[in-house]
Amino acid sequence: MRDFEIIFYDKPDGTEPAMDFIMSLNDKMQARMLRTIKLLSENGTDLREPYSKHLVDGIFEIRAKVGSDISRVLYFFVIGRKIVLTNGFVKKTQKTPKNEIELAKKYRNEYLNRKR
After folding, report:
1. In the chain, where does DSSP find H-type helix?
2. Is-above-0.85 flag for pTM?
3. Which residues contact 112 (CB under 8 A, 6 or more apart)?
4. pLDDT-above-70 percentage for the chain
5. 2 falls in which pLDDT band (50, 70, 90)?
């Protein structure tokens, strides 16, 4: 079984929010997040908690934890064994912020409309 292809969503201005977020993390957290992304590419839809969780409406999150800090990157699946990473944030509360989920949905819509 071949790995899933990891794609970073790129905004019309060429920036990649998920990549920018990952690059902004400290070395330890970045390494942990990149390891989790590798697990995601190897396991795809079979990756479960504590690494990955379905949030709502086809939007998922991957998690990386260092000490008490938790980073999340949101993503969705595309037909053809592709995973698109949309945006990331450092989690401060129990619930995933609504605006982050809405942003991921917006990016997904833009991505899918662009690919049509």
Report:
1. 17-24, 27-43, 98-115
2. yes
3. 78
4. 99
5. confident
